[in-house]
Design brief:
The complex is a heterodimer.
Chain A (H helix, E strand, L loop, with lengths): L4 E3 L4 H10 L4 E4 L5 H6 L7 E4 L4 H4 L1 E3 L3 E5 L4 H4 L3 H6 L1 H8 L4 H4 L4 H6 L7 H8 L2 E6 L2 E6 L4 E3 L2 E2 L6 E8 L5 E8 L10 E9 L5 E9 L6 E2 L1 H7 L6 H14 L10 H25 L2
Parallel strand pairs in A: 1-3, 2-3
Antiparallel strand pairs in A: 4-5, 5-10, 6-7, 6-10, 8-9, 11-12, 12-13, 13-14
Chain B lengths: L26 H6 L14 E7 L5 E7 L1 H5 L3 E5 L11 E4 L2 E4 H8 L4 E2 L5 E7 L2 H10 L1 E6 L6 H4 L26 E9 L2 H7 L2 E9 L11 E6 L5 E5 L4 H12 L6 E5 L15 H11 L3 E4 L2 H7 L6 E9 L5 E13 L6 H7 L9 E9 L13 H19 L3 H8 L18 H9 L2 H4 L6 E10 L4 E9 L5 E5 L7 H13 L6 E5 L16 H28 L6 E4 L2 E4 L10 E2 H6 L1 H4 L4 E8 L5 E11 L6 E11 L6 H20 L30 E6 L21 H13 L10 H9 L8
Parallel strand pairs in B: 1-14, 12-13, 16-17, 20-21, 27-28
Antiparallel strand pairs in B: 1-7, 2-6, 2-8, 3-7, 4-5, 9-17, 10-15, 11-12, 11-14, 15-16, 18-26, 19-20, 19-25, 22-23, 23-24, 26-27
Helix pairs in contact in B: 7-8, 10-11, 11-20, 12-13, 15-16, 19-20
The chains are: A alpha+beta, B alpha+beta.
Chain lengths: 290, 767
């Protein structure tokens, strides 16, 4: 604590260099809604903190005909006002907006939420469902990685020393697409997901599902992409049988622990419930995006 | 309401200011951030104090090596068990309660053993937070870890780990020869229980459990202590009782009471949890050793690990009733966990369990049990919500079995004036029936429900207390007045005392400034608790106002040169009366005050009181819930709290008390619990995972005030702060039963537990 250094670089290159060259532990700071709490409770004792919020690439939201790019440090409050992103991926925006209070929303970001490494991170299952890919910068250059591959265990990331997530790239969804994210918490807000489920799907003109992705949070050591969940929907009209199969696939994919936030049995059961409910919202959105 | 005392001041007997809703005197400072709370006090040369706490639930402390910490530059004092006096094991009166200073001393600093995760083991005072933290890390404690016990029923088993080898259960004959975790047994009985059950057509017997829950005040414990070279000590802290802090510090450290002055800061919630000391004696001892002021502030984690929740309980309740709806017999077995030292609220829990009802034949036995958890502290109606959750559950089930509306069933058995309570006294005028009638007749109670929705009703009782209070009124030169009193304002009592003083003086409340004083500046006043302040300290203020009015009449008589008997006091004016009526223009308090120097000097009066006759409080709550059958989530849709306030002095703050109690009770019902791991370490010491309700979890809570005057107070006041936390758990449980058919007997009724119970077809498995 006594020798904590703080840097606020203005380029990705400088940030990467500072983090890579640091003696001892260095922490990247986006919104800080996790990091500051961890500092105050002595959960982490870094020697260097590198604030990323002065780097334009991490604070921009851009969209072209093909894809949407969201800077890793863009706050929930900012993204929540972006009509283009909300129209394309409402589930992702809603998931980010679930994090914390109004005050926290002024800071909380997709990149921070992902890189905190929590299996219960709200925005991560929604990003997985959306097929989001991270653009990563590091000492050896840039690379891309699907969101579902970033968290490797509780608090563990597939990022090397000095690597940071710069942005998230999501495809521009085709017509008749929709997504949704739901979480279960015992309260109405200010809580950590006991189970989170994100669903994205696309229908053809006949209303048959042609594409689907299911992401789950808080039910395993990492957020999950559930391939069986997608298969339960693709080729169906997302009828009751398909939804039941989706719920069963979600429950089957769970590998949770008993902890202070929920039991194994409860999480397995509720994962199926939430997957089905999220799919119904995504379906409704897809049908109205004709 | 017509009493002799009411004639004080406002001569016509009607109340002009009591019952109105002016802004509270402390309100602006609190919403602007100007108010000074415990951690806001700073002194020159002040050191930072930190505590080292046991990571073990139960461990013998073999040794404590502080040498490395002492050698660290910037460390000015260290306190361990070696720096505190040993105190004999005896219970002594302290104000309204009995305390055991040995236990208290061992709770603020562990001696032979650490008895819970978070138990204080050593304290450091240093020149900075960083140095204090470093010093804490340098203290080496050698623990011999012992088996521990967390659950109250497990702690009562013969083979349970024993916390105190000198604890032989009191209240059983003969006294046991082996020590146990059962500190005492208490019993209450009247009538003939067997005969009562023989008359019953329906008997229900159920076992219930509740979890310890924290008071959840926003402001953590905080203190600044300064011991002077002359032995005079100053303490600033957030507390519900500055006189209690003074007495406890004096007794724990062997200091004369007159050498300690305690100033209460503004208080960010207490709910009973700030009626005890944790940091204060340690900070004072550190200051004695360091020769400098010491500030200590708990983190939220420390608040959860080491400050008092209320007890968890295990209860078996058996009640019988005739098919006509008359309760004929009631029996209760109740065990409360006290935490690491004896002193759970088992007595009040037993006394309250059947108090809302007129039951001829009843028996209660209760047990006070120690476990490896923090020592419990008072929490709003201590003991009553736990036992009454259980008895109200059985009452609800009896009503259902008999096919009688639960409000109607309660009305058929409700306590009223003349009912003899199980614990002895006969009730005077009480409002149990009135609150039930108001609830039953409310629009809420008859509004139709939708699918998966249910409605529950429950009634609760709390004694309320009076006790020792002191108040001084100083009349200022411009005719305004200052009321000085000794009760920290945790629930709007500045406003209620201001209003009562204003009423008795006959001047508008904005001309009366209330002040909560330090222990050197006002006479002994028992702490803020027991819903006593508006009743008891309010009466002291009324009495002081009465004395001031006497002086004002004397001064007017002197100015007019007529007998004092010929001066009456009305609406803040002296008026000549009788044969002198109309001889002089009425004289205002300001006019009399302006001439005080010429008529005998300053006008001021002090009144002291040991208030008796606190009016018991009854409340009835109605709760609507909706249950998500797939997740077990309960949403409280609508909530109405009805309560007898006697006379609501400031109705907004009475309503606030009712809403706050209901909100805390709903949290207790649905989600709050301590989660310990297998080693007895607390896993959720923070508001993130200790799930108190947030604002969006609750509907607007409708508050309905019923007024059945307390004849022992000039304006009819009863205490109101505690009763509203008694009914919610049973009301929520009854609503869930009504929605789902599942009767939950174990708290909290959290989503996993309710889902499991629904999936098991209605059985609440016990947790």
């Amino acid at each position: 604590m006594s020798n904590l250094q703080f840097e606020a670089p203005e380029t990705v290159e400088d940030a990467v260099r500072l983090l890579a060259d640091a003696d001892g532990e260095a922490k990247a700071l986006a919104g800080g809604t996790d990091l500051l709490v961890q500092l105050r409770t002595d959960f982490v004792r870094p020697g260097l903190i590198v604030d990323l919020k002065r780097i334009p690439a991490l604070m921009d939201v851009t969209a072209n005909g093909e894809e949407i790019r969201v800077g890793a440090a863009v706050s929930g409050a900012t993204l929540g006002k972006n009509e283009a992103v909300k129209a394309a991926w409402p589930g992702v925006v809603e998931a980010l907006e679930l994090i914390g209070s109004t005050q926290i929303q002024g800071r909380a970001s997709l990149g921070g939420n992902l890189c905190n490494g929590s299996p219960a991170a709200d925005s991560v299952p929604a990003l997985i469902a959306a097929g989001a890919v991270c653009e990563i910068a590091g000492p050896a250059g840039s690379r891309s990685m699907p969101v579902e591959d970033v968290i490797t265990g509780p608090g563990q990331l597939a990022l090397g020393p000095g690597e940071i997530v710069v942005s998230f790239v999501m495809p521009k969804p085709p017509p008749r697409s929709g997504d949704a994210y739901l979480r279960f918490i015992p309260r109405t807000e200010m809580d950590i997901a006991v189970v989170g489920a994100g669903v994205a799907l696309t229908l053809d003109e006949a209303g048959v599902c042609t594409h689907a992705r299911l992401g789950l949070g808080a039910v395993a050591p990492t957020p999950l992409l559930v391939a069986d969940g997608a298969e339960a929907l693709i080729g169906t009209t997302v009828d009751d049988d398909a939804l039941a199969n989706l719920a069963a696939a979600a429950s089957a994919a769970c590998n949770p622990i008993d902890d202070k936030r929920g039991t194994i049995e409860y999480r397995v059961k509720v994962a199926g419930v939430l997957a089905r409910r999220a799919a119904l919202i995504a379906l409704e959105r897809a049908r109205s995006n004709g | 309401m017509a009493t002799a005392k009411q004639e004080i001041g406002n001569g016509n007997g009607s109340l002009k200011y009591v019952g109105t809703r002016p802004w509270r005197p402390d309100g602006v400072d609190k919403v602007t951030g100007r108010a000074k709370f415990g951690a806001d006090i700073s002194l020159p040369g002040m050191l930072v104090g930190r505590m080292l706490r046991s990571p073990h639930a139960h461990a013998r402390i073999v040794s404590i090596d502080t040498s490395a910490a002492r050698a660290l530059p910037g460390v000015k004092a260290i306190v361990t068990r070696d720096e505190l006096p040993d105190i004999p094991n005896q219970w002594v009166p302290a104000g309204e309660v009995a305390v055991n200073y040995r236990d208290m001393s061992q709770n603020v600093m562990a001696r032979e053993k650490a008895l819970y995760d978070g138990h204080a083991v050593a304290a450091v005072a240093a020149t900075s937070t960083a140095i204090a933290k470093q010093a804490i890390d340098l203290i080496e404690v050698d623990y011999e870890v012992l088996p521990h016990v967390i659950d109250v029923r497990e702690a009562m088993e013969p083979d349970a780990p024993v916390l105190h080898d000198d604890m032989f259960t009191e209240g059983v004959e003969p006294t046991p020869e082996t020590p146990s975790n059962v500190f005492k047994k208490v019993e209450f009985a009247h009538g003939d229980l067997d005969a009562g059950f023989a008359q019953a057509d329906v008997i229900v017997e159920r076992t219930f459990t509740t979890k310890p829950v924290h008071q959840g005040y926003i402001e953590p414990h905080a203190v600044v202590a300064s011991a002077g070279e002359d032995g005079q000590c100053e303490v600033w802290c957030c507390t519900q009782g500055q006189f209690t802090v003074r007495a406890y510090c004096a007794n724990l450290l062997g200091i004369e009471i007159g050498k300690i002055n305690v100033t209460p800061s503004e208080i960010g919630g207490g709910f009973g949890g700030k009626t005890v000391v944790y940091l204060e004696p340690i900070a004072l001892r550190l200051s004695q050793l360091a020769g400098r002021p010491v500030k200590m502030v708990m983190s939220r984690e420390e608040v959860f690990r080491a400050s008092g929740p209320t007890s968890g309980g295990a209860m078996t309740i058996k009640m019988g009733a005739t098919k006509e709806g008359k309760i004929t017999a009631a029996k209760a077995w109740i065990a409360y966990q006290a935490g690491a030292f004896p002193g759970s609220p088992i007595g009040p829990g037993c006394m309250c369990v059947f108090a809302p009802y007129d039951i001829e034949n009843a028996e209660v036995e209760g047990y006070d049990v120690v476990v490896n958890r923090p020592k419990v502290a008072a929490y709003r109606a201590p003991g009553a919500p736990i036992s009454e959750f259980a008895s109200e559950g059985v009452v609800d089930e009896l009503a259902k079995k008999l096919g009688i509306d639960p409000a109607e069933f309660r009305l058929m058995n409700a306590a009223k004036e003349g009912t003899r309570a199980l614990y002895g006294p006969k009730f005077g005028p009480v409002g149990c029936i009135e609150t039930l009638e108001a609830a039953r007749q409310s629009e809420h109670y008859s509004t139709p429900l939708g699918p998966n929705q249910g409605r529950g009703i429950a009634t609760g009782f709390w004694f309320n207390i009076g006790g020792e209070s002191c108040a001084t009124i100083n009349v200022n030169e411009d005719g305004t007045a200052t009321v000085i009193e000794g009760n920290p304002d945790i629930g709007g009592s500045r406003a209620s005392i201001q209003l009562q003083a204003a009423e008795a003086l006959g001047i508008p409340p904005e001309r009366v400034r209330p002040l909560v004083a330090d222990t050197d500046s006002i006479g002994y006043t028992f702490l803020t608790g027991g819903s006593r302040v508006t009743f008891a300290t309010g009466m002291a203020a009324i009495d002081a106002a009465g004395k001031v009015v006497e002086q004002l009449r004397e001064r007017a008589a002197k100015i007019w040169d007529i007998p004092v008997e010929a001066v009456e006091w009305e609406d803040g004016y002296a008026k000549p009366s009788g044969s002198n009526a109309g001889d002089f223009e009425p004289m205002s308090m300001a006019e009399i005050a302006a001439q005080a120097g010429k008529t005998g000097g300053p006008i001021a009066a002090t009144a002291t009181i040991n208030a008796q006759g606190a009016g018991p409080g009854f409340g009835t709550h109605v709760c609507d819930v909706e249950v998500d059958r797939e997740t077990g989530r309960v949403t409280v849709l609508r909530y109405t709290a009805v309560q007898d306030a006697g006379k609501a002095v400031h109705p907004s703050y009475v309503e606030g008390q009712m809403q706050g109690g209901a909100a805390q009770g709903i949290g207790w019902a649905l989600n709050e619990e301590y989660i310990y791991d297998k080693d007895g370490r607390l896993e959720n010491p923070g508001f993130l995972d200790y799930r108190m309700p947030v604002a969006s979890d609750l509907p607007m809570i409708d508050a309905v005030i019923v007024e059945v005057p307390n004849p022992n107070h000039p304006y009819g006041v009863r205490g109101v702060g505690e009763t509203p936390i008694v009914p919610p758990m049973a009301a929520v449980a009854a609503a869930i039963e009504n929605a789902t058919g599942v009767r939950m007997t174990d708290l909290p009724m959290s989503p996993p537990r309710l889902l499991e119970a629904m999936d098991n077809g209605g059985a609440n498995g016990g947790a």
